[in-house]
Structure formats: structure tokens, C-alpha cells
């Protein structure tokens, strides 16, 4: 009888110790997961803004060209908010992987190049009332911006895999 009570007490202490370890490990993991999740949300919002700009440029070929300009303006406004959010997230210490450096540079170049092309297309539509060719420049620019956002999302997913963390809790209650 004494042995069973002692073994129950030992099991209870082990359970308490394992819960304490889980709680102590959960705090830094939660911060890492929140950072990764916020980076992914920023990538999705960037992709969404480039999709809005893409739809706006395609609307230039229809009778709804003025409505397309509104879509383009909303897309650029959302992109501006995402870029400010992304700059704010850069103040948080993020991991640096040498393996992803070239990939990160390529993603940022794609985002920059796409934004410049989309801006040139938008500028030519509004100011110079340019030919249809400039609308295609904007379409190509918005597609390149979308690919840049998709690359940003892929980069965050690779970082998540390299760190061995997931955004979902690994251990459900024991």
C-alpha cells in the first residue's frame, strides 16, 4: 500500500514537473510563433494588395476603367500600410540564415521592380493618358509584385522549418 502511494506521489510530481517545463518552454515559443505568424500575415496582405492592383489594371480594358483606378488606389494604400508594418516588424530581432540571403535579396528586388512597374503603369494612365502598352506594364508589375509576396511567404515558411517551429502547438495537453 505504501509503495502504491509513493509511486502515485512520484508520478504526480513528474506530471507537475513536466507541466512546469511545458510552461517555461511555451513562453519563448509563443513569441517566435507570433513573429512568424505576423510575417505570414504581412506576406498575405502584400499578395492581396498586388491582386487589387492587378484587377485595377485589368479593369482598364473594360468600360469600368474609373472603378479600376479606385482598385489600384486601394491596392497601393494597402501596400503602403503593409510596408510600414513590415518596417515595424524589422525592429524585432529576426533570425538571419546565410542560406536564405540570396533568396531574400531576390524577393526584395522582385517587390521593388514590380512596384516601380505598377507605378509607371498607374502614372501613365492618370497623368499622360498613355497608350495601352503602359497598362500592360502595370499588369506585369502587379504580377511581379505578387510573385515577390509569394516569395516572402515561402521565405517565412522555410525559416519556420529551419527553426523547427510551427505556428500550431506541437504538444496538446498531456
Number of domains: 1
Strand content: under 5%
Q: What is the global morphology?
A: elongated
- Following the backbone from N to C, one meets helices and strands in this order, namely HHHH
Q: Kindly report how far apart the N and C termini lie.
A: 27 Å
Mean pLDDT: 76
Radius of gyration: 24 Å
> Helical content, roughly?
over 70%
| Assembly level | single chain
Major beta sheet summary: none
Helix/strand class: mainly alpha
Secondary structure tally: strands: 0
Report the uncertain regions: 20-27, 166-172
Helices and strands in order, then pairings?
Layout: H1 2-58, H2 65-90, H3 101-126, H4 132-163
Helix pairs in contact: 1-2, 1-4, 3-4
Concise account of the structure shown:
The protein is an all-alpha fold and 174 residues long. Helices cover 81% and strands 0% of the residues.
Would you kindly provide a written description of the structure presented here, covering whatever features stand out?
With 174 residues, this protein is mostly helical. It has one domain (31-163). It is 81% helix and 0% strand. It has 4 helices and no strands. Helix 1 packs antiparallel against helix 4. It is elongated. The chain starts with a helix and ends in an 11-residue tail after the last helix. The model is unreliable at 20-27 and 166-172 (pLDDT under 50).
